[in-house]
Erythronate-4-phosphate dehydrogenase (Salinicola rhizosphaerae), 383 residues
Amino acid sequence: MRILVDENVPLAEEFFSELGEVTRQPGREMTAESLRGHDALVVRSITPVNAALLEQADRLRFVGTCTIGTDHIDLPLLGERGISFASAPGSNADSVVDYVLSSLLLLAEEDGFSLAGKTIGIVGAGNVGGRLAARLDNLDVDCLICDPPRAEAEGREDFLELDALIDQADILCLHTPLVSEGEHATFHLLDRTRIEALKPGTVLINAGRGDCLDGDALRERLERRGDLRTVLDVWEHEPGIDEALYELVDIGTPHIAGYSVDGKMLGTEMIYQAAMRHFGLPARKKLGQLKPDPWLRKIVLHSWTPPLDALSLCARACYDVRRDMLAFDRYRRRLGMTAGFDAYRREYPPRREFQTLRVELKKNKGGLRDALEGFGFSVKLGK
Ligand SMILES: NC(=O)C1=CN([C@@H]2O[C@H](COP(=O)(O)OP(=O)(O)OC[C@H]3O[C@@H](n4cnc5c(N)ncnc54)[C@H](O)[C@@H]3O)[C@@H](O)[C@H]2O)C=CC1
Ligand SMILES: O=C(O)C(=O)[C@H](O)COP(=O)(O)O
């Protein structure tokens, strides 16, 4: 059996060689010819799997994307061709939440505000948005949720309309999938009218998909009024993104919110398991045998620290978004935007999720343990 795998998929040889011969290729360079003679294709989000790509796919039986998003896959076409498909829901959701929390802590520090007392609007409350709300639960943060598909399916009367979030939220986080058509389409969900309606001072974060937000309208508002704080991990037209918009945002990163070792490797394992199921083979390999140990395992807090300070300290030790902002900026200046965007993603330095860090507390009071655990760290009470 032959399996074609994106070069950015970690542990591909370790997992997929159980199935057969693994060939690697950069995801943006995969063509119809690349697929000839391959039985399985394993991609991430940058390879459009469509009629043009499948034109010469003479043996293809299985397609897997090691990502949460599936907007790059023509699912009806795979169905018509009888090609089995799997994605990796939830795989890097915690990493995206770490990214959002790190960004919020950084802006809070820069602007001298506290997250406690803020109202955060979460648009799309699936794995990412739902876990973000849960992790903020122990801080005094008011979470407003907009998720019309879930509101309908679950009869949730506590969920709000997007325009209500725009009116009320100090922080607005977009975590929607890209859906081009239908009642709940998300293409330019944040359109010019909604971007103009954002209150001055709003913190706007997009770590969903670039096309969910009208980038031209955001750039024009920032040029004209400069009165928002903005965090963009996803952009229209990646990797050739709008440099003028990039210059105006406060935190700009090249679609790496989900790029922890943990999130990426879990995505590979999920697709390995799905492929083995599809081909009727036992999945013997386990991620636990292959994943490296975290280099920072433990922090000990010897005396009581106010919860927000402790969170900030531990978050920064584990993952600090500044690392990615600054490094991406160096890559872009050295290689140009398009090449720099992909080069940083290809050479992404290892990063671990908050949940890999154990925080040992010598003193617990004032909700410190709950805040740290709620934020995602694993906590142990010392003697
Ligand atoms: N920046 C990055 O590196 C990453 C980005 N993503 C993106 O984030 C998206 C969300 O990820 P998950 O939460 O894991 O997906 P999910 O499928 O678990 O949740 C998505 C939620 O959005 C809701 N939704 C759909 N249409 C909506 C609309 N019009 N308005 C409001 N809510 C709507 C759905 O009902 C669902 O609850 C992914 O589809 C992917 O595109 C995911 C991982 C990494
Ligand atoms: O999982 C998703 O959905 C994502 O957006 C990925 O984390 C992005 O990773 P690449 O596909 O760009 O490697």
Remarks:
- The pocket of NAI (ligand 1) is lined by residues 68-69, 90, 92-93, 96, 123-129, 146-150, 175-179, 184, 186, 189, 207-209, 233-234, 255, 257-258 (CB under 6 Å).
